[in-house]
Amino acid sequence: MTRIRRLPEHLVNKIAAGEVVERPASVVKELCENALDAEARSITVDLRDGGASLIRVTDDGIGIRATELPLALERHATSKLSADEDLDRIVTLGFRGEALPAICAVSRFTLVSRTRSATDGVRLAGEGGTVTQHVTVPAEPGTTVEVRDLFHNTPARLKFLKTAPTELAACLRVVAHLALAHPEVFVRVASNGRATMTLPAARDLRDRLGALWGWDIANRLLRVDRTEHGVTVHGYASPPDVTRGARDEIVVTINARPVRDPALIQAVLEAYRPLLPRDRFPWVCLSIALAATDVDVNVHPTKAYVRFRHPRLVHEMIVAALGEALRARAVMPTVGAAGFAATPAATEEARGMGAADLLAAGAAATGAPREQTWLFAESRAPYGAGLFGRVLGQVQSTFIVSTSDQEVFFVDQHVAHERVIFERLTAELAAGAAPAQALLFAEPLDLAPAGRALLERWREPLERLGFAFEGFGGQAVLLRAVPSLLKGDEPRRLIEAAIDDLGGPRGGEPSVDRALAFVACRAAVKAGMPLAHEEMERLITDLGATLTPFFCPHGRPVVSRIALSEIRRELRRSW
After folding, report:
1. Alpha carbon distance 341, 356 (integer Å)
2. Which of 84, 425, 434, 555 has the smallest count of CB within 10 Å of its CB?
3. Torsion 91-265-512-472 (CA) sign
């Protein structure tokens, strides 16, 4: 008896289906991608029990010819590739010819399709990949695919499905990402007969984001737009004070294809580092466009991962584009922002602006990056007004109040000084080792095993900043030096604070940025500390000279502002 034999065709189909169809969300993704490839302008998704009992996707696309519909259920049969060369420049979402056969192999299915030029449609029905019905029926132009009892013939896969709400959430996430990649398409999702997502066709991406994420979030988003070396990065990103506790709303599309590439997500987070609070993530939707020959989407049957011909270039473009947006003036929190930045027309009427001010208002209202050459040009004359105007005084020994001709600024002195120190230390590290102060007598640190292990993990970045440790091989650890900025702190308490700050339930990997942020926070002036007028002037001037003056290294806002036009309107002052 031979030990090697061919598997039956139905078993081959089930095995292949396992690569493409992981859960109901996989089915929804593949069917919606087919609808988009068919030039659909409207897509409707109906689900029952999170998609386990029923998935129905209806579109108004070009449809499938009656003679070709049975062929669509065969593996590796597709209209999107015709030659080997096409694999080098894939421009459609689907191309492998695996989705429909894989879905039909593990479900009870029905397909109804009609081309725009035909008078009738064709209906195919069956289960387990076998067609049992082929009839001509009246139908609207487009295609409807109905999938019932998913995994009914593969119980091993069926038992691994999550609860209906969890599967529904995964389906909604897939549809949302496709909707963000194609804002011009109407999308509707219903669950158990009730609408759960309705996204009208949008004029632009911000309108689609407003319908999906809410207008409170969409109005705060910063416009991202950069084109260089044949790569375009376009989209919207939240300022560092608008965050959430998960990465679900970091959406990246490559040539209108949503992807789950860890390297791209890391590039986004790198651009925000160190502006975000610990364990917080931004709202980001980026669309990356590049030549089809420079990206390989034929990496995995799910088509969710890609490879780039020049991965470093794409990474650097994302970091540069987001960094430019995060340095825009529109990133500053504004008191009464809902009224102030509602529309450019309302802003213009309230302010009585000139052309330069209208440009700033347009940036605040639309999230467009504002021209900021003046911000990064040569330093101003010694007596010229800075980025935050002239200092008026101090409120509650915590907030420095300054004013320009158009706005009043409230600056948190602690986080402002933190930002100044952070960037100064960064420059010193780039030039060489940070200055350190050796202790006259080494300080023994009696740490618990967990604290000692954490300190050893962070030893390298801490020592780059001027700390010096000795004796990690035994029970006691000796502290021999601290950064010069912190020489006034009690050494033992300083290390205990470092362990508390750098540890936590999700401390993350050791990084110099995190250690820098800790040192800057400890060295900065504290809230409640009175400052002389000259000290406030120096702090505001130094803050205006930093690269990122609007947020501290931990992600807290530094400045809040009020437009003088808003104050005049409240007080009914017409001049």
Report:
1. 16
2. 84
3. negative
Q: Are 59 and 38 in contact (CB under 8 A)?
A: yes
Q: What residue type is assigned to position 274 of the chain?
A: P
- Count other C-beta atoms under 10 Å from residue 536's C-beta: 20
Structure tokens at 568: 């005049």
Helices (H), 189-279: 205-213, 215-218, 262-272
Beta bridge mates, 469: 479
Show the CA angle centred on residue 261, arms to residues 259 and 265, nearest 5°.
105
Print burial letters for 366-395: b (CB count within 10 Å at least 16), e (below 16). bbbbbeeeeeeeeeeeeeeebbbbebeebe
Count of CB atoms situated within 10 Å of the CB of 293: 10
pLDDT in tens, 170-223: 999 999 999 999 999 999 999 999 999 999 999 999 999 999 998 888 988 999
- What does residue 127 show for φ and ψ, rounded to 5 degrees? -155, 155
Give the pLDDT confidence of 467-507 residue by residue, as tens digits.
Answer: 888 876 556 788 888 888 887 777 777 887 887 777 654 44
Give the integer Cα–Cα distance in Å for 114 and 140. 7
* Longest CA span, the chain: 100
Reported pTM: 0.70
Q: Where are the chain's structural domains?
A: 9-199, 205-326, 332-374, 379-575
Query: 3-state class of 530 per DSSP?
Result: coil
In sequence order, what DSSP letters do the residues of 329-365 get, joined into one string? GGGS-BTTHHHHTS-HHHHHHHHT--HHHHHHHHHHH
Pick the CATH number of 205-326 from 1.10.443.10, 3.40.50.300, 3.30.230.10, 3.20.20.30: 3.30.230.10
Q: Are 171 and 28 in contact (CB under 8 A)?
A: yes
CATH fold for the domain made of 9-199: Heat Shock Protein 90 (3.30.565)
User: Rounded to an integer, what distance in angstroms lies between the CA atom of residue 486 and that of residue 466?
Assistant: 10
- Alpha carbon distance 299, 72 (integer Å): 22
DSSP state of 386: B
Phi, psi of 423 (to 5 degrees): -70, -30
Tell me the C-alpha to C-alpha distance, in Å, between residue 112 and each of 79, 105, 121, 159. Answer: 18, 17, 7, 30
Omega prior to 491 cis, within 30 of 0: no
Residue type, 13: N
H and E: helices and strands count for the chain? 20, 24
- DSSP characters over 142-155: EEEEEEESTTTT-H
Q: Using alpha carbons, select from 213, 216, 146, 225 the residue that is nearest to residue 183.
A: 213
Residue with tokens 């401390």: 507
Task: Give the mean pLDDT of 76-101.
Answer: 68
